[in-house]
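Bumping with the actual sequence this time:
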Amino acid sequence: MDLGYTTMAFSWQMGDREREILTAIVDTYISTGEPVGSRTLARLTAEGLSAATIRNVMADLAEAGYLEQPHTSAGRVPTVQAFRFYVEQLGKDRNLPPADLSMIRESLHGVSDTQEFLGRTSHLLSLISRGVGVAVAITGTKTALDHVHFSRLGENRVLAVMVTRGGVVSDRMLRLERDLSQADLDVASRYINENFRGWTLDDIRAELDRRITAERSEYDRLMQSLEVLHRQGALISDAAQAMVFVEGAANLVGGEPDTERLRQLLHTLEEKEQLAELLGAYLKSDNGEVRVVIGLEDSLPHMRNLVLIGSPAQLGDERVASLAVLGPTRIDYGHTITAVQYLARLFEELMKGSN
């Protein structure tokens, strides 16, 4: 699998020996969660280096900012800088294990709409990564419209249901300045669907403003209905109402001893708007690459020691959703990166096949 991903850059250069030892340290720490000592590494390195030689290399790596020593007598643990280096060294040609592929195929069998895919994918990502799986449907003024439908719920009350080209469904309750019949609403929705399918919401609203003004002299019943619906925000996609699916919070909080940090972390996971903003800030690229962000405390201090591994999910050139995993820095990077990339590509295949 051709996998592209980006991390924060660093400038320190190291030789093959330092690279091998640092990689072995990160691998061991991810596996055990314990500080890594020179004797353990002596058994793992290909060159069969002595413990004394490894200690010297570890001292150099610590001075360069790649290792730290939590206790005087303990081994060393990787820093954020070491994890970033480790991710850069990962091979890009990786495949998911057959068991994961089978689970994904079974879970996504028959899925044909965006909401269902995102809901199931957040669960799959939490199972595969043992972290928190997050999937966010992207809506906004640049979203392309597929169709809209208006339903009269009562006097001056209308439900506007909007479906985007990516299959995202959003609804909005409208309280109108004057009452409209269902027949008026049907004519208005038909007009929008016939004239504006494939247009962005920004462009639709601008064109409606123009047409309403240009045709004010005639101002027939259709234009009156359109103006009432338009002014009440029938074609506004509110980012605060974005669909966010979160699974696997227990995977993060189980071993967290800091009760205040745990409270803040759980609050962030519950505040889905904040999660959507977090993914939106880091996954802006439309090039389909997986992004690995180590050091989330830059955005939210209580998310220190956490990593975000995410990718945009696209339909053609349109970014429709974001898929991501939130996990500890000890996460299995290669496995998780491959899973996120695979599911992002599978999204486009499934959604194109359903159209």
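The tokens above came from a reply further down the thread. The longest strand covers residues 318-328.
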